[in-house]
Design a protein that fits this description.
InterPro entries: Isoprenoid_synthase_dom_sf, Terpene_synthase_metal-bd. The chain has one domain. The N and C termini lie far apart (about 40 Å). It is flat, with a radius of gyration of 17 Å. It has helices at about 5-20, 25-30, 35-60, 70-85, 95-105. It is mostly helical and about 110 residues long.
Length: about 110
């Protein structure tokens, strides 16, 4: 399992404790009437397969005929999600790392 999936799965328990909307794991468990372990494996497989498709298309090797702007936006969104959620919930409960990144972006913006 890749680092992104590990970090993403760590959010599941925090979401349940906060009473957030059902996650993909919860939805999968209810839809397929399966255990949390089985749902995690299925979601992990979906993440891996989707990344393979995105990578194939972004390199121009894919058979999916997606337009390059869509591919670029998808890859950038996934990268942004990795940055936000790597190591915990960077939105609902941001830690010092995420606060530092946001502060750096806002206060040291050299992109004028």
């Amino acid at each position: 399992m890749d680092d992104y999936a590990v970090s993403w799965f760590g959010l599941f328990e925090a979401e349940l404790q906060r009473g957030d909307a059902p996650s993909s794991i919860t939805c999968y468990m209810q839809e397929k009437l399966c255990t949390e372990r089985h749902a995690r494996k299925a979601i992990e497989k979906l993440i891996v397969e989707t990344w393979k498709k995105i990578n194939e298309d972004s390199l121009g090797h894919g058979r999916h005929a997606l337009h390059q702007p869509f591919i670029n936006a998808s890859v950038n969104l996934a990268r942004m999600s990795l940055c936000i959620y790597n190591g915990g919930d960077g939105v609902g409960a941001p830690g010092p790392r995420m606060k530092g990144l946001v502060s750096e972006l806002v206060h040291n913006n050299n992109y004028k």
